[in-house]
Amino acid sequence: MHRVFENFVEQLSASVDAADLCEAMASAAAGFDFPLFAYFTYPSASGDAPQLISNYPSSWTSRYLQQRYHSLDPVILRGLVCRIRSNKF
Asked: How many secondary structure helices (H) and strands (E) does the chain include?
């Protein structure tokens, strides 16, 4: 596990774009025997599109964003609740 984290940090340090970030995250996920990963961020400004970086098939990620499944996804919603709570302090 320690080596997976070290490799992840090294890859992040060398990253210059979203493709590099995706590769680093996919490598780290694989190190923990997860074949797929997704990293989702809500926009900080209203009107901006959410960002999704993942190694899921592009047909699925396109559908996920187009259908706005992130507004129903319990994992995403839980993350938003935690973010709101942490901003109160």
From this structure: 4, 2
Q: Are residues 51 and 77 in the same domain?
A: yes
- Where do we find the tokens 């190694």? 55
Judge whether 60 and 40 are in contact, CB under 8 Å.
no
Position 88 confidence tier, pLDDT thresholds 50, 70, 90: low
- Phi, psi dihedrals of residue 20, rounded to the nearest 5°: -65, -40
Query: What pLDDT digit, counting tens, does each position of 9-18 carry?
Result: 999 999 999 9
DSSP structure class, residue 43: -
Residues 19 and 57 in one domain: no
Amino acid present at 86: S
In percent, how much of the chain has pLDDT > 90? 67
Range of the domain at 10: 1-34
